[in-house]
Amino acid sequence: MKVLKSLQDPRYYQVIVLSLLLSYGVLALDFGIHWQNAIAILLTAQLAQFVGTRAANLDRYDPLSALITSLSLTLLLRTDDIALAALAATIAVGSKFLIRARGKHIFNPANVALVALMLTSDNAWVSSGQWGSATLSAFALACLGFLVLTRAKRAETTIAFAAAFATLLVGRAMWLGDPLSIPLHQLQNGALLIFAFFMISDPKTSPNSGIGRTLYGALVAGVAFTIQFVFYEPNGPILALIMLAPTVPLIDRLFSGHLYRWEQPAAKPPAHIKGVT
Amino acid sequence: MRILVTTLTAMITIAISTTAQAFCGFYVARADTSLFNRASQVVLVRDGDRTVITMANDFQGEVRDFAVVIPVPTFIERDQINVADNTLIEHLDAYTAPRLVEYHDGDPCVRYRQYEMMSSDSPAPAIKMGRQQAAQSLGVTIEASYTVGEYDILILSAEESDGLITWLTDNDYRIPKGAQRVVDSYLKQDMRFFVAKVNLKEQSRLGFANLRPLQVAYESNKFMLPIRLGTLNAQGKQELYIYALTRTGRVETTNYRTVKLPSNTELPEFVEAEFSDFYRDMFAKQTQKENERAVFLEYAWDMAWCDPCAADPLSADELRRLGVFWMGDQQQGRVAPGQAQNVFVTRLHVRYDREHFPEDLVFQETGERQNYQGRYVIRHPWKGETSCDATAYQAAVRERQEREAQMLANLTGWNIDDIRSKVPWMNGQAPEPAPTPWWKRIWQ
Question: Where are the domains of chain B?
């Protein structure tokens, strides 16, 4: 029974899907991932989680979320510098313990690390084109399957983001008189899918209420679109998420809902919640 | 004690040169001359939001028939346009070209050594007033017209694309079908159009036989290359070479996959005579493998050096003439060979058409400074007299020759038997073919 119960934690599925994506990227698509960086990210993230757990006096050390953060960072962050990789993991996990409001952390860990490094260093970047578009339908199915399996009840953020972003792209193409192949090509982007299914969907950093999450997803899509197609800067979604994360406490104040717990994704909230996972 | 004798290997480099035939915009030919637009070479110098673009072509045909329409992200003034020398791009092409290198085996009796693969200006003649007024009534503003070198340059903006298209048609330019939609889309994205045609008088006065590359310097957030117009009148797929010169590191596309071509592989000796065929077929095969949707990396290197060099690195002066505007920051004089030049070159090669490349190419500069080159190796076996029993060496060479043949078949899709028949096997003796598994004979 205990095993079954622990498998309810959607993070196990997340670890499996991210690991599969990573293996596919390294073996089939020849991503330029340095294994030294991957190890540095993995170890530093766990160390930071351990130190944070001790410092915050939490009951137990939970390696799962830090593992997921490591996998996301390994998938998205590109750098030649192993120290930057380790720094990314430290910023990511550290931000969970240090930047908090209303009982939860504000920034998605991998997101805040990516943006911090991209803005301050010439040696860190995200290769958003590296997934290509050939195998993306299979990729999208895997992501969708993951969504249905694990947290259908918290899927509003992803759905609202994807719908709003697609609408904006198609609307832009119609206004410009461009063929639909252009917005379709823009949507067939592996990095965009990882963002939509594994970053913006993070239940710990998205609003507590359904309506709040829908609003949040749509807002992120709007800002991402503006960054990419009005200011012509790359990595619109990743930058938009960091800019809008501070609005989550505000959205939570406007629309009340349940705080998320990993172990009981579909359950009613318990009376008292403690822990940073 | 054995004395180690290192045989110096003669290393030669053979550069294949690319053929460039057109710009990334579309050619507009006067009268009925058939439009020809198949390949182009573009140098993009980029740092911050400053870009200098150089576009080269070897237009075949009457120069009076030559004209090109190029979308540019901003309004451009006279001083932002320049005409460069063809030699600059030829040098850059030679320096970055995929290369074939060769090694000679030493005398196996002295020492059989595996060589490791190294990784290693005149005032513009104003357009006649009548023409200007006619243009305005079509909703087209000729924002400026200049003569730069042998080119007459017109910078247009238009409220409506049909105005621009009508104006171009009225002025005897042939416009490909479907251009209006694309022009309309670019206009809504605040792009300006830049038309260049040859001023025959200036051309004969200057005495240039070939058309020289046009250069434009502009400031814009957009780090991109408009390719959509070029796909309209193309006969089949087009070849495009992009040389990016940046301060920080390698350049890649953000909306298409950037893929490294297979490199540092050993190939049969006869490839020396067929290197162009090899490269063409290898490129075609790799393009197919990526579903015709990838941009290929052919070279990424710090401009200060090369190994092996297909040509010398470009000098500080050449780089400045290509638009590397930060060169002046360092020092005025020339940079000594081997000295860091603070310039990283990326050579990208893309074969594109409208179906597989619906969008313009968008780039980003990455922090990666790891060197990469398209490098192919042939190794000549020792053919001199041997003073000892060289059977083991000969067997090893035959195995190597078989491996090279397999590799070549793999990369190009050439028939393995054809390849084997061309290999000058050691002692004229091919290796024993692998025995057919016994079960294959049962049901034949």
Answer: 13-380
Taking only the tens of pLDDT, chain B with its 444 residues reads: 232 222 222 222 222 322 222 333 333 322 222 222 456 889 999 998 999 999 886 566 666 767 777 788 887 777 888 888 888 988 898 888 888 888 888 877 775 444 333 333 333 334 444 555 666 666 666 777 788 888 888 877 666 666 777 777 777 777 777 888 888 888 888 888 778 888 878 877 776 666 788 899 999 989 999 888 877 765 678 888 999 999 989 999 999 999 999 988 888 988 888 888 888 899 999 999 888 899 999 999 998 888 777 788 888 889 999 999 988 655 444 444 445 568 999 999 998 888 889 999 999 999 888 899 888 888 888 888 878 888 888 888 888 999 999 999 999 999 888 888 888 888 777 776 666 777 877 776
Angle between helices A156-176 and B179-188 (to 10 degrees): 120
Residue B275 burial (CB count, 10 A): 18
The pTM (predicted TM-score) of the whole model is 0.83
Pair B301, B96: CB distance under 8 Å:
yes
Which residue in B222, B224, B257 is closest to A129 by CB distance?
B257
Q: Is the Cβ pair A123, B184 closer than 8 Å?
A: no
Q: Enter the ipTM.
A: 0.84
Angle CA(B152)–CA(B153)–CA(B158) in degrees, nearest 5?
140
Q: How many contiguous H segments (helices) and E segments (strands) does chain A have?
A: 13, 4
DSSP characters for A207-219? -SSHHHHHHHHHH
Substitution target in A34, A128, A229 with the highest count of B β-carbons within 10 Å is A128
Q: Do B183 and B193 meet the contact criterion of CB atoms below 8 Å apart?
A: yes
Q: Quick one: CA dihedral A188, A190, A191, A197, positive or negative?
A: positive
Say yes or no for a CB contact (<8 Å) between B181 and A177. yes
Provide the CB-side half-sphere exposure for B300 (13 A, CA). 23
Q: Which residue of B has its CA nearest to A30?
A: B259
